[in-house]
């Protein structure tokens, strides 16, 4: 498949690198280099980053935070990560824009599809922060929504593992990796790839998802070039 426009979903946890919390600058720089590399190939890139390295609304709710306030805190965490990535891309000489799902100029511009499409076509790496702007929706759902809105060819989910397995490979050494898997199979096997809202949106809009290990430098370019190093969901 030829990819002209993609949505790259990065996990907030991955930004921690070897740390227990926050942002590992080495990890951030590695991501920025990989993104710049494929931007130079002429690929239009939209990005959504999670906020789990700073604050996660759902786990906050388990500790007594009001769920809506907790989710709002999680959305702000994604803005912090988006600004960090934007800064790392600036250092790479890669032009980029940060759009926010909630009004917060001058931190970022308020998101609209028209603005996003304009920037993507002008060659800006466009970072979508603040989730969907609503509580009770994860950044996975925000990724699916933005990918569908910008008419991306596929969603690339960069994680710490090299694809989807029958079980968590970090916990179960006998887990087997899938090269390809259908959305329905993910449901039926109860695999934790993304939350169900996100998976359903991708299925209903025929958006393929490619899950791969973003922590290995060069992998993003390999996946874009069609090398079989991750798992394709279709």
List the helices and strands and how they pair.
Elements: E1 5-10, H1 25-39, E2 44-49, H2 57-62, H3 67-92, E3 96-100, E4 109-110, H4 113-121, E5 125-129, H5 139-149, E6 154-159, E7 164-165, E8 177-178, E9 180-181, H6 183-189, H7 196-204, E10 209-213, H8 219-224, E11 231-233
Helix pairs in contact: 1-3, 5-7
Q: What report would you give on this structure?
A:
With 234 residues, the chain is α/β, with parallel strands linked by helices. It has one domain: Carbamate kinase. The protein has helices spanning 25-39, 57-62, 67-92, 113-121, 139-149, 183-189, 196-204, 219-224, and strands spanning 5-10, 44-49, 96-100, 109-110, 125-129, 154-159, 164-165, 177-178, 180-181, 209-213, 231-233. The strands form two sheets. Strands 4-3-5-2-1-6-10-11-9 form a nine-stranded mixed beta sheet, sandwiched between helices. A two-stranded antiparallel sheet has the order 7-8. The protein starts with a strand and ends with a strand. The model has no long low-confidence stretch (mean pLDDT 95).
Key descriptive features of the protein:
Carbamate kinase, 8 helices, 234 residues, alpha/beta, two-stranded antiparallel sheet, 38% helix
